[in-house]
Amino acid sequence: MSSAFVAFEDVSLAYDGSGNAIEHINLSIHEGEFVAFVGPSGCGKSTFMKLCTGLHAPTRGHMQVDGSPVTGPLKISGMAFQNANLLPWRTTLDNVLLPLEIVKPYRHQFRKRRDEFVGWARKLLRTVGLAEHEDKYPWQLSGGMQQRASICRALIHQPRLLMLDEPFGALDAFTREELWCVLRDLWEAQRFTVVLVTHDLREAAFLADTVYVMSRRPGRVIERRAISLARPRPLEMTYEKPFIDLVQSLRAQIGDVRSH
Amino acid sequence: MNPSRKRVERLAPWAAVAVLVAVWEMLVRLFDVPSFIFPSALETAQALLTYSGPIAAHSWQTLWTTLIGFGIGVAVGLVLGFIIGSSRFLYNACYPLLVGFNAIPKVAFVPILVVWFGIGSIPAILTAFLICFFPIVVNVATGLATLEPEMEDVLRVLGARRMDVLLKVGLPRSLPYFFASLKVAITLAFVGTVVSETVASNQGIGYLMMSAGSQMRMGLVFAGLIVISAMAMVMYELFALLEKRMTAWAHRGQPC
After folding, report:
1. A242 touches chain B (CB under 8 A)
2. pTM for the whole structure
């Protein structure tokens, strides 16, 4: 295993006097790894995301990303949330281009290299199956399509760390499974590091290399489980016995956490 | 909706006006109200025709003073709204002050303005400005201040500065609020101008109504009222149209 890309050493964060949101987090994620965080609601999974991306500083402990301590927002990361948050006055294509208008060094090259950037965006949109919807506005797209566009927006500046906060939480079951496969294929092709926060154990088990189970607030990592299912993983696999057993044992663990 | 129903709907506002005028005319005749108290619709129309020259001149005065006051109101409202909306601290600090200022009847400012600037167009312009900038400030500031925190995270992680977020997301997002407030502001600006003209001017529809009223020529007074409301209505529709064109994305799902 290569050395850690994301390393947490005894990290805790308290927003105010009301106690820690998460505490004593120790973990290391290597480059290109797909990790998932599962746990009961309010376990500080989203807090973990804010720490990872440098949007929030820890109150205790040390964190390093890519070999150096985190001191501010990390522009090598891209984010997507449960709510697609696309800007309604921009077309899908322009929404995907938005990060390039902001992140350095692209923001200063945006006018000059616009055609090239548009090419990147179109290619990305094509890989998630939105080729014919580039010029539509977000409100003309279905929820699943909006979420695809949102993931494209998170990936357009070629981040090395993709942070996903329950990105498929608001979708229907079929669309969700479809998007699992979209994400799987994107990751297989580009091998960025992914941190996926989710409530869905099947989702975590299907996509991730490593699943972290978190306790109730204050959130702690109570289990780290490597998922050894062979890749590439077809969706059918999720209906076979080894997968179901795996999900069930994760489920039992979460049940334990909830009852304590 | 079928076309004939659509036509009926389009004609409905005109029908409402016609009914109002008919009821007005009928009531005045029925109760035989003297025209120096409440002129009939017909007498008002006659006054409108007879004095069309002076009415046009005074209307023009009222229109341009209103538009200048409104223009200043838009500029100041935008800038102030942007400043207040871009910081939670300023928003909290200035909002009560603005509400308090807005509660002052603007007619109370007119005597002060007359002392400072004398009688004429300037108090009218300033009253129009004072009365109309508040809704613009509030709407722009609210549009900016209610940014989704997640959207902000997406951009902040990319190293976006506060100004980036405001220009790329905040300002376009507040545009529908801004255009909606223009409709309210333009009608208020007319109120401001006319109020000022009735007290402190020798030109404009407000002055015309005041002097006609003091001579008991109520037909002319009512003609003035109708001209003001017609001007305000036209301007309102103009800004409603502008709003629809500029921010079509905010009116999604409605056939244009």
Report:
1. no
2. 0.79
